[in-house]
Amino acid sequence: MSPGYSCQAYIAGMNTPAESRMIRISLFMPTDLLKRLRQASATRRVPVAQLVRMAVEQSLGAHRPEPRGGFLREGREKREG
Fold first, then answer.
1. CA distances from 23 to 33, 39, 81 (A)
2. Which tens digit of pLDDT belongs to each residue from 32-72?
3. CATH number at 25-61
4. Burial letters for 3-20: b for 16+ Cβ neighbours within 10 Å, e otherwise?
5. CB 13, CB 21: distance < 8 Å
6. Distance CA 58, CA 78 (A)
7. What pTM was estimated for this model as a whole?
8. φ and ψ at 72, to 5 degrees?
9. Which of 3-7, 45-49, 76-80 has the highest mean pLDDT?
10. Between the CA of residue 47 and those of 6, 28, 41, 57, what are the distances in Å?
């Protein structure tokens, strides 16, 4: 278990469906944007990470990539075509 995480949070993360599990990422942003993000976080009483997720969701909108066929499907199409 990672330091800083309670046992309950760790277990709860393990019991969630695969598509709802969180993956930690790192990103670079200008200092002034980070300052605004932290101010919004404090004002709204929402974690910075949640604001970032909301902004990404809003930016992407309803766009969902179509599933890829994978190597088995591509091979089958080449043989049949």
1. 22, 24, 40
2. 999 999 999 999 999 999 999 999 999 988 777 777 766 66
3. 1.10.1220
4. eeeeeeeeeeeeeeeeee
5. yes
6. 38
7. 0.55
8. -70, -45
9. 45-49
10. 18, 18, 6, 16
Question: 64: helix, coil or strand?
Answer: coil
One-letter amino acid for residue 60 of the chain: L
Cα dist from 8 to 12, 15, 18, 22, 74, whole Å: 6, 11, 18, 16, 43
Sketch the domain layout of the chain as residue ranges. Answer: 25-61
Determine the residue type at 55. A
